[in-house]
Amino acid sequence: MSEFKEEHTVSKLMGAPPGYVGYERGGALTNTVKSRPFSVILFDEIEKAHPKILDIFLQILDDGRLTDSRGQLVFFTESVIIFTSNIGTRTADSRGQHVNEKENLEKILSEVKDEKLRAERVREHFVRAVQEFFMYEISRPELLNRIGSHIIAFNHIDDPDAQKRMIESKLHDITTNFRDKFSNLGYRLNFSQEVVDYFLEKHRQSIEKFGGRGLVNAIDDEAGLPLADKLLFAEKNNLTGVNFVIFANDRGELKCRRES
User: Looking at the domain assignment, is residue 112 inside a domain?
Assistant: First the structure.
């Protein structure tokens, strides 16, 4: 939703007003829902949108419908709408003023030792931050009323099992993309199980602090270099049907070997 920081960008969703360029095309949101009413619609980082952009959701969440710029009625009654947000972990609000959301969250995580109580306190923190955002920061209590109790708080990624599944998912995506890219040569890429443990041990704190965004870069940097050497050798010598295996040696270093 960072693409909708300006008030006039609502035309991207509902269509340009009559007389403006692009009027006949309609809006991206209304056109999509009209053609595919059974949809899951995700609005990522909703707090980055202009507050007046959020006003279009008043009718959507209340009546399940929206009239586009051409006067056509679009129904959202068969759609699932999801808002995601970083509210509750910010150091500055939408006006650039300092807020204590991140400090308060870190205080809860460090001071509350009981796991069940900590999860409840974290949930309360996020719900309260969302409520304050709609009530005071953008002055849209009517939108908060329509959201109601459907505020779901996700804790920091501090569960080792969740981190492990995240790493496994990233490695699976990389192997799939590698196979598709080099399918004409019959190349395959596999990661041994200790590679998952390697990234979990080395990047656990980074994942807890910054999320999983940097995990792909870490995998590319640390696994990509040994793979590149073996891959270039195979391509230079016209080898086909090669299986590349990334593994961790006894010194805790990532290496790559070729298997026919």
Answer: no
Q: What is the mean pLDDT of residues 169-193?
A: 91
Q: What are the tens digits of pLDDT across the range 183-234?
A: 899 999 999 989 999 999 888 888 777 777 777 788 888 888 889 999 999 9
Q: Which of 137, 144, 246 is nearest to 197 (CA)?
A: 246
Residue that terminates a domain, selected from 46, 62, 83:
83
Same domain flag for 164 and 255: yes
Q: Give dist(CA 66, CA 56) in Å, integer.
A: 8
Domain that holds residue 61: 2-83
Tell me whether residue 124 is in a domain. no
**What is the per-residue pLDDT for 177?**
92
Listing DSSP states for 227-242 in one string gives HHHHHHHHHHTT--S-
Residue where a domain terminates, one of 53, 83, 113: 83
Question: Which domain CATH number covers 178?
Answer: 1.10.8.60
Any residues with CB less than 8 A from the CB of 255 and at least 6 apart, and which?
226, 246, 247, 248, 249
What token pair was written down for 175? 């192997």
| Residue 22 CA: distances (Å) to CA of 9, 34, 52, 232 | 13, 18, 21, 49
Domain for residue 215, yes or no? yes
Residue 123 in any domain: the answer is no
How confident is the model over 46-66, as a mean pLDDT?
92
Q: How many domains does the chain have?
A: 2
User: What would the pLDDT profile of 71-108 be if each residue is shown by its tens digit?
Assistant: 889 999 999 999 999 899 889 888 888 999 989 988 98
- Tens of pLDDT, residues 115-152: 889 889 989 999 999 999 999 999 999 999 999 889 98
Burial of 136 (0-12, 13-18, 19+ CB in 10 A): exposed
